[in-house]
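Deviation from plan, reported transparently: N,N,N-trimethyl-histidine complex.
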Amino acid sequence: MSDFATDLAHGLRRRPKRVPSKYFYDARGALLFEQICRLAAYYPTHAELEILRRHGAEIARAIGPDVDVVEPGSGAGLKTRLLLSALERVGLYVPVDVSREQLHATAEALRREYPALAVQPVCADFTGDFEVPERHAGARMAVFFPGSTIGNFEPVEAAVLLSRLARLSGPGGGLLVGIDLKKDPALLHRAYNDESGVTAAFNLNLLVRANVELGADFAVGRFRHYAFYDPGEGRVEMTLVSLERQEVVVAGERFAFEAGEPLTTEYSYKYELGQFAELAGAAGLVATKAWVDGRGMFAVVWLVPR
Ligand code: AVJ
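Because the crystal trials were delayed, the predicted structure below was used instead.
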């Protein structure tokens, strides 16, 4: 069985039912996410781009010159260009992503735009082990982890992931991490429940993907996109709610949904700067610098090994 089949079946056996959010990003999911990033209501992308534009020079000074860059979950590479343009003498850029088509398209485009740069894409799930190709001995490594991707992980997993990425960056390097800040829940609600229905399509695409790739028989119209902010947990939870009592077959196994039963597809944790610094501390990292956008929505943090 594929990882997707195994993880989905395992998640459907759990109560509450859940599935890892990394399975959103097939080719269609990656395109839908790019559309989300263009929505006015989806502030994280706009805020982070603003930070990278406004503070690029200072960020580059914090990271220092002569550095290799690894980007787990690289996506379309919009933010990458801003970082690469700000940094002084980048030898190697390694985008790591599960979305193969997008990964190779982005790598090609970057090679054209930065002829002096070595681009070595790695098609892998960054939550597992992956190799950094052609890394020259002694090069300092900056891990670029923007977009609040770290917010998809529960705090304990997030600390484990940060310490793995810290090991990758080595003693002279560090991690440049984008985190979404705590804010008015009404703004969070709007960001994950856009009027145009793009976020709903992105969420429901998980079921479409299961049908196409695994021969599952989800009746996509009988599930509703439902996202809400849980202030106690400090996270947005994305769910697909079964509109009626129904059964679904995935990889030969039958799963029953009650009317109104949720399938949790994503957590998106929101942090206060101090809270995130504490989490990074548990991973052996020190937050030495943080940059915030003008509206206080989002932060980019530079973490170095303690
Ligand atoms: C890219 C995973 C950080 O959690 O905000 C956007 C994904 N989900 N709208 C996020 C997402 C719904 C996004 N991450």
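The chain has a mean pLDDT of 96. We consider this an acceptable substitute for the interim report.
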